[in-house]
């Protein structure tokens, strides 16, 4: 019924036929009861929301997240029952998170709307009412006649009616669709080609019958009738959330059970100070149990970090700008910088295990240059504009030849006639321009649908056979200055199945000729004469050199044969049903019994630093798969030249299999060989046909072979096959993170299938860039993107996620422990304002800034040592082991917070001068104060790279907490119903014991963590930590290299080891100049944050070592200041004197040891020494 109503209203066509009828200019029949079909409009929509659905759709998507939905339930529970905390404590953070996320997603969608509006609002001209009418792209209707000028983008799918050329042809580039960079020729039907004015087109009455829209770019069947009238991180976060939800439920259930167990005693069930009402005495025990359970759930709900998601969203969004700002990813030649289309995948860049890359335009420049050819079984090279046989030179007796022999000229004419090359319209009259000395015209500017064709036609023009253009239905060439005109009769277009294209022309003598060129696999089997064997050998030699090869052949037709061919072509091209199949049959009938002329070899130059990039990816533990449509030999040669395959690698092949049985047998043999030769590296070559067979029945065996190979090369691949290969690895049991990189529209399916898609801003249009997550200008930028940005993003997000869980465990566990001291009465330990602001204000900024700016290793080190990428692979920092450590640490700190404060105040001790006692709110505030300081300092301990922003938000967060608490508790706020915190914070800070407790508890909490870090760095250092120790030798300042040392064992080795145990922080922002200098703030950095030092064996500056004597004045320079100090060895000196001399901290190093250290150093550079009374260095 609904469908009938829709049909009657015109919203739903009565049926969906196989064809559609389009009336040009929307001139519908005026007789009968014709109902126009309803077609889709021309609007481009890539946005996700509209003004009307943004709020409901965005809310629906946000509440699908576990944390948001959980807090919504908690908020509703707080509204429905009496809970110990106000609904505001859950509602306000939830509202903040939802609002910030909605603003971020709304902004990104607004950018998509803006991009859509630019396309939809683009001006176009259509023929209406007898003239050209300017309108917008989105207003074009099916049937409109659209005018498209030169260099304009097609606003819709179009059928060519006419052009400004006499023959009705036009040349279009389809780079944005299929990645092919140059021009394709389209010709209008003769009936409409003559309509070249707006007035004539407006009078056109015609009907087009064609197929329904389909995804195949290369298939269009139609007929015109003219009247006789003119996410890894998200999964980890969700897993951690579920674990913490289990902990929350456990605490709530345990607290509820313990409450009723405690109240089993009559004196605790209804104490004198808390008598029950009559309603409470008569209420159901089950309902009371459920109510108490929900109350405890609300009390402990802050263990789930509600602000985690919004912080992650902000980190990803803001952090993505650093990729675009990175000058190392900027390509000056094309003025292109890296761009980020999807900020949600930043951390995935640090987890890539497989890279799938296209070859042409991605690994290569997509700039073709003619190198060699084979004509009639003889190899030729171009030497100084002449075609020279191999082995000959200009100095040889036969090297200085004049003219071309018959076979050479015919071959070059075939190259100049069998193509889709066009000449720049501004140069079409230049064929009669100035002549060179050898009789060749001035160079013409060619355009072609294939860069190979362009390179071949340009090469032919240089050696004497020049294609000068198309005039009407004739192709014009000049052979050594002699003009010749060939009538173009038919063009047999290239298609991926035939892998060849042909033209039928009429020579000046009236002879009908077929010229064809294509892949050797499609030409050689159809050739019956010519030097077939020699040409095949030459093609293989070209391929081994990495050249792209084509074979050229021709055929002569008798008048009877040509008449039969013309009849068959006409019937096939006008058929409405099975047109493609019929055309394929006719083309196969025509392209047979060929006479082979020769073959060509064209080079596609490798991009800069491709080999280094692939080798770096291999060192990082990333496997590289090259997926290309090139022939087997060419692909293997390019893989060898770019370093994808090593010369010492055992190359295995799975090619040219036609049946499942042979394919399976070959796979089993390959698996056996890999097991037998497991020591050496293997590379695998697979062609498209064999791949289809392998994926059909033997997918598991094929995957086993591939995973044991260091490199895989897939050749003769169709675009959909590329996507299937990516999906195969992506969905394997190991679930590896995949990355696909390409530059053309034929790579889009592969790019979209991979976890991370990267588009190359190359010469094959922008389709790959638009459909990618990231876009870079060159393949070499991939190393910086993964090894630096990916490494940083992963470390930052991993620490951010686990730190959030840690600080919330610290936050809510004291609340749980407090219930043991208040008879599980659901009394809250913290004030509700503190509950609300803890995650929003007091502890949010330090971790956010850390997640944006942290650099635990210098970027240069990460890029120069790809092996460091292995330290973060397999989600190493977000596994259950580090998660367990952070959780246990959070519980430990929470216990220290609570019981440390309890020991201070638990024995009815007066800590105030007037003898007053602290109350429960003071106790809770003390715990909260210690907690805020500790979790903030914990973030400071995790920070390696300090900027002024880090200092501002870290210490500023602590200062802000103190200032806020003083104002909040020091003023009576009239809008608050109760003010339990009035004067509490001031009273707490007035106690010296409280200050001592705060310092002692914070140190006790962090001490264990510092010891753990020192032990792990000393006993089990990771590759990253080892790299930090060697940064000073690379010219990067690092505290790890505070003492001079070499690869051998020197006197200072023990000192270095001791210092490494204490510190290990890098900051590549300052460089100390030569001289012995130690400022007071540098000492503070040595015990707290990240100081700067330089290893004294740095090669950049060399000074002879010098040992100061006792009492000798020391001098050195720092910038433009001179530093002087006295070498002291008196005993008992500590601290600083009035002159600002620092006399020691904690570690004794005698002047003898100091002398031994300096004397063993080959160069003398500033380094820090912890000393008691051995050295005095002037501050400042």
From TrEMBL:
Enzyme class: translocase
InterPro entries the UniProt entry points to: ATPase_P-typ_cyto_dom_N, ATPase_P-typ_P_site, ATPase_P-typ_TM_dom_sf, ATPase_P-typ_transduc_dom_A_sf, ATPase_P-type_domA, HAD-like_sf, HAD_sf, P-type_ATPase_IV
Stretches the record annotates as Disordered: 1106-1128
Subcellular location: Early endosome; Endoplasmic reticulum; Golgi apparatus, trans-Golgi network; Membrane
Location of the P-type ATPase N-terminal domain: 33-90
Enzyme Commission number: 7.6.2.1
Cofactor(s) listed: Mg(2+)
Catalytic activity: ATP + H2O + phospholipidSide 1 = ADP + phosphate + phospholipidSide 2; a 1,2-diacyl-sn-glycero-3-phosphoethanolamine(out) + ATP + H2O = a 1,2-diacyl-sn-glycero-3-phosphoethanolamine(in) + ADP + phosphate + H(+); a 1,2-diacyl-sn-glycero-3-phospho-L-serine(out) + ATP + H2O = a 1,2-diacyl-sn-glycero-3-phospho-L-serine(in) + ADP + phosphate + H(+)
One GO CC term, this protein: endoplasmic reticulum
Pfam families for this protein: Cation_ATPase (PF13246), E1-E2_ATPase (PF00122), PhoLip_ATPase_C (PF16212), PhoLip_ATPase_N (PF16209)
Residues the record lists as binding ATP: 358-360, 453, 494, 517, 548, 628-630, 716, 722, 746-747
Binding, Mg(2+): 358, 360, 743, 747
Keywords: ATP-binding, Endoplasmic reticulum, Endosome, Golgi apparatus, Lipid transport, Magnesium, Membrane, Metal-binding, Nucleotide-binding, Translocase, Transmembrane, Transmembrane helix, Transport
Catalytic center residues: 358
Gene Ontology MF terms: ATP binding; ATP hydrolysis activity; ATPase-coupled intramembrane lipid transporter activity; magnesium ion binding
PROSITE patterns referenced in this protein's UniProt entry, alphabetically: ATPASE_E1_E2
Bilayer-crossing regions: 66-81, 241-262, 293-312, 785-806, 833-853, 883-905, 917-940, 952-976, 982-1008
Membrane topology: Multi-pass membrane protein
Ranges where the P-type ATPase A domain occurs: 123-185
All residue ranges annotated as the P-type ATPase C-terminal domain in the record: 769-1022
SUBUNIT field: Component of a P4-ATPase flippase complex which consists of a catalytic alpha subunit ATP11B and an accessory beta subunit TMEM30A.
Family classification: Belongs to the cation transport ATPase (P-type) (TC 3.A.3) family. Type IV subfamily.
Function: Catalytic component of a P4-ATPase flippase complex which catalyzes the hydrolysis of ATP coupled to the transport of aminophospholipids, phosphatidylserines (PS) and phosphatidylethanolamines (PE), from the outer to the inner leaflet of intracellular membranes. May contribute to the maintenance of membrane lipid asymmetry in endosome compartment.
Name of the molecule in the record: Phospholipid-transporting ATPase
Species of the source: Taeniopygia guttata
Lineage of origin: Eukaryota, Metazoa, Chordata, Craniata, Vertebrata
Gene: ATP11B
